[in-house]
Amino acid sequence: MPLVLGVDSSTQSTKAVLVDADDGTVVAHRTAPHPAGTEVDPRAWLAAFDDATSGLIDRAAAVAVGGQQHGLVALDGTGVPVRDALLWNDTRSAAAARDLIEEMGGAQACADAIGSVLVASFTATKLRWLRDNEPANAGRVAEVLLPHDYVSRHAARPGTPAFTDRGDASGTGYFATAEGAWRPDLAKAALGHEPALPAVVAPGAVAAHTVTDQVVAAGTGDNMGAALGLDLRPGDVLVSIGTSGVASTVSRSPIADGTGTVTGFADASGGFLPMVTTMNAAGILDLQAKWLGVDHDHLAMLAMQSRPGAGGVTFLPYYGGERTPNRPDATGTWTGLTTRTTRADLARAAFEAMLCALADAVDALLAAIPESPRRVLLVGGATRSPAVRALAPAILGRPVLLPPPGEYVALGAARQAAWALSGAATPPDWPLAGTETLDAAPQVAVRAAYAALRDSPSNPHLEHVEASVRSAPK
Ligand SMILES: Nc1ncnc2c1ncn2[C@@H]1O[C@H](COP(=O)(O)OP(=O)(O)O)[C@@H](O)[C@H]1O
Ligand SMILES: O=C(CO)[C@@H](O)[C@H](O)COP(=O)(O)O
């Protein structure tokens, strides 16, 4: 029974799971926190990797790292970061995204080239921001990595050249996703000169070895890792509620959505991963709990004391700007507050707003793919909340499958490690037992109230970016 180690270097923490390669049983797990913020010294992720994998990695025959997508780890000629990494949820490069889209010939041309329409999350936009705002730093950039590439190389023997996979590469903005090849010309256009890019390792292949000769697999983006961990099939929709809110599915063919709502990523097993991402998800609950001075259990209890519609309170949860819809400069907008509004209503409104944004994401995803929906699965840190579990099927308007509590990105990375270790053509079959079905009557009125506010012409952030994308040349 060989053991394999899967790691999720996600936005808020590193999670490591040690897994039996034969059947996917988790035998041990550890986590280590990351610094907060949208700009982080990437060496903190290496320290968190060392901490979370300590005592586990020595027991593993193979290891793989899943990581938060996008982001910019810019290294100088000696491999030292030229500045702190910019994360996927840092919106300072929104204008750079608009410029690059225009230079590529408009939104549809951009989607045709890379599979997605650029938003501030994508690495290419951060390279352009660096070129325009920190030219001295930009000039020192010799190599550009994604967060998971940087951590994977740390796991490998010193001197190993950097490597990545097509899943995470598809979120850079300089990777032709349908063809599976870098577009170094696009990286050069963004940065001003051509940086070294990591080798793209095939799904299931051995990418490198550790200093003690353990196999290191390619690793991937966290959402691709979750799809692998849950063995997602076409028609399955995975809703993940972590720092980001994500609705994703796997598909055999690429998409190119010129509206920018659905990003057309590659997955970690040779197919594609159409996906809709919101920037504000579990953090909405964190903030609401802080404002009300309660913990998460109390917040959930309060929310369940209110009624559907939260006593008329509705809000747009765009606290950190938003990506879907594309409103990077937006802020939160609360409506419907009266003298009758209670603390319970305020708590309830937070769950409803978070889930309405995710329901929009699911609808947009389903509208963009040819497959009819098979199953909707729910994962991520916020599923620990009983109120999320109670309200998700009601707001999503369909039954939701809740896999047993687990770190599914890390599990997917472990499955990739086991795949590379086996040398087989396909990943090992790991059964998923104990999935619970959540069901509730759909709350159509709650979604209608949210949609009315989201699309209200009086919303100060509505026109700005969406209009600029619409008017980009075809
Ligand atoms: N009981 C809970 N109720 C609501 N939210 C929770 C609970 N436990 C954890 N969370 C939230 O889950 C989030 C972390 O989820 P996770 O999927 O690990 O995020 P990421 O992968 O982005 O690092 C945090 O924002 C945290 O507050
Ligand atoms: O930007 C995206 C997807 O495009 C995010 O989903 C990041 O990949 C971060 O994920 P979490 O840390 O929230 O899981």
Automatic annotation (TrEMBL):
Query: Where, by residue number, is the active site?
Result: D222
| InterPro entries on file | ATPase_NBD (IPR043129), Carb_kinase_FGGY (IPR000577), Carb_kinase_FGGY_CS (IPR018483), FGGY_C (IPR018485), FGGY_Carb_Kinase (IPR050406), FGGY_N (IPR018484), Xylulokinase (IPR006000)
Recorded catalytic reaction(s): these are: D-xylulose + ATP = D-xylulose 5-phosphate + ADP + H(+)
Tell me yes or no: is Transcription regulation among this UniProt entry's keywords.
no
For this UniProt record, give its keywords in alphabetical order, as a comma-separated list.
ATP-binding, Carbohydrate metabolism, Kinase, Nucleotide-binding, Transferase, Xylose metabolism
Report the residue ranges that make up the Carbohydrate kinase FGGY N-terminal domain in this protein.
4-219
List residues of the Carbohydrate kinase FGGY C-terminal domain.
Answer: 238-421
Top-level taxon in the UniProt lineage: Bacteria
Keyword NAD in annotation: no
Residue positions annotated to bind substrate are Q69, H70
Site Important for activity: give positions: D8
Against PROSITE patterns, the record matches this protein to: FGGY_KINASES_1, FGGY_KINASES_2
EC number from the UniProt entry: 2.7.1.17
Q: Could you tell me which NCBIfam families the record lists for this protein? A: XylB
Q: Which family does it belong to?
A: Belongs to the FGGY kinase family.
Concerning PANTHER family, the annotation shows: SUGAR KINASE (PTHR43095), XYLULOSE KINASE (PTHR43095:SF5)
**UniProt function note:** Catalyzes the phosphorylation of D-xylulose to D-xylulose 5-phosphate.
Specify the protein name: Xylulose kinase
